[in-house]
Amino acid sequence: MKQLIFLSLLFTLGCEPFMEEKKQITFETIDTDFSKGRLNHNQTHSLTDLEKFHGHLCDGLVVGALAIEQGMKMLYPDGPIDRTNLRIVSQPSPCSISLNEGVKPAEIDSLGSLATQQKLSACQIDELKLMEDDFTDFLLRSNPEKLFTVSEINDFVWNPNPKNDYLKSDILNKNAPDCK
Ligand SMILES: [Zn+2]
């Protein structure tokens, strides 16, 4: 592994013009062509592919995809992304990435906190989904180059400390009743 980067996510959403067209997120990658193969297997990955892997489309997934896109532009400016030479470090939450304070609509965080405590009514869960969908749409219509500050860490030491004690928040309300 040659390169590790740190993505410092500095949101400046309020300063950027809203784009008419929704952004299409795609990643061009190169891999080996089988388990002992050569580096010649090119693929294109879309946000839909990420959605299938993650399980659903959410604002956190889009923030993560946009952040990775900015980081990969620094690591592989001429493309494609060499996945044989890459490791990703992330926090454990399945649906969120740390943002600067005040960037994400505060109501999403307050309702999200109540959802994590399973204190939302059925209709409030639907309301939270609409708010997150609106924020997702906003992200995809914003200029991603203005959303993040990407910086390189020199002499980074890889020292993983894997744990399995996080709260998987996206399954807590899976049996909640429908809003009527
Ligand atoms: Zn999610």
Q: Count the beta strands.
A: 5
Q: Which geometry do the CA atoms define? A: globular
Bound molecules: zinc ion
Number of H/I helices: 4
**Proportion of strand residues:** 5-15%
For the biggest β-sheet, the strand order reads: 3-2-4
- What is the residue-mean pLDDT, rounded to a whole number? 83
Unreliable parts: 1-16
What's the topology here?
Blueprint: E1 5-8, E2 26-32, E3 39-46, H1 47-54, H2 59-75, E4 81-82, H3 106-116, H4 122-140, E5 149-152
Parallel strand pairs: 2-4
Antiparallel strand pairs: 1-5, 2-3
Helix pairs in contact: 2-4, 3-4
Please characterize this protein's 3D structure:
It is a single chain. Residues 1-16 have low confidence and may be disordered. Helix 3 (106-116) crosses helix 4 (122-140). With 180 residues, the chain is an alpha+beta fold. A hairpin with a 6-residue loop joins strand 2 and strand 3. It is 31% helix and 14% strand. Strands 3-2-4 form a three-stranded mixed beta sheet. The site of zinc ion has 8 residues, from helix 2.
Key traits:
alpha+beta; 180 residues; 14% strand; 3-stranded mixed beta sheet; single chain; disordered N terminus; binds zinc ion; globular
